[in-house]
Design goal:
9% strand, alpha+beta, globular, phosphoprotein
Amino acid sequence: MPAAVRATATRLALDSSTSAAIGVFLVGLLLWAAGGWTVLSDRDLYPAPAKLVLLCAALAIQLTAQRRPALAFGLMVALLAVDVPFGLSLPLWIALTDVIFLAVSTGSDRLGAVVGWFALLVTAGGALLALSQVGVRAGLYAALFGVALTWSPLGYARAVRASRRMVHAERDTRRAELAAHDAERSAAIGEERRRLARDLHDAVAGHVSAVAILAEVAQRDPGNVAVLQTIRASSLAAMEEMRSTIELLTAPDDVAVTTRLASLDGLIEAAEAAGGAVTLRQPPELRLPVTVEAVLTRILGETITNATKHAPGSPLDIDMHSDGKTLVVEAANPLPPDAPTGNGNGNGLRNMVFRAESVEGTVTAGSRDGSWRVRVRIPLGDR
């Protein structure tokens, strides 16, 4: 890989990690303000200055992990060990997910093995301790915490390492026979796979935050079955994202199936748990090429996520139709009275446009007649 490209990739990775660290800091402030700082709500012993110090310490450790992952992991484990007697602070455990990802994806193989044993110890030990001290329900919650907060980031970090090794191996074995164009194509494939892994990291981080917050709610209200179902849906969605990306990274070619429309079920369940209704209509005879289906699934996933986030409780209507040559998808949901009415230019919409353009399609989105509308047009051609 040319030095300029490698430097650019490194800078983008650092920018993404810094954004993740700041995001965890903001989530910690939100949990603090909402009274959900600690897993054990009746043992919140920290005064306000101590909480601010802990948040700043976690932020500093996450930023350190970008350059010195082993040191950052050790500092985070030490910070958690000090915190345990005071009731398990949720912001610190959420910060741990990012430190684990950076430690395994950028650290040595030995550090990766240490993190793996740590994840096993936390998950099994926490579940057994909760089971023996409280009961089966608490043991289940502890196991969910362990999987969401340690095994999920560990899994997609290993996928990133596998991607890098595969790209390096392909470049080394084909260097003698590939022309300059083929070498650039291999680098582009590697960069695309690393980008998909970063996308997965961002998606799973959202699921992890949701699981942590919902588990806190479930602990306060153990009889709330809807919360448990939402926790399960978020956990399964995160696992499905991770499994699909790992299949792509380990596939022998570039056309491996990354996602199917069926993988939207988890997002639809989460939207309905938030009080909304999602209606997805598609012709029963519709058969999409794997590339088009993967692109469409990502676009609709972003559409459902945005509707759930910005208009919770509002119905979302998605209609798909095709004349055999062009696929047209239209989605609409009513906007709350205080929702912004601009056409939007955030990362989500840019990613939707980029994915559509990758298969020569288009995406338009904006508010009209009190609803947020998304229109996708993708030519099917001879795919």
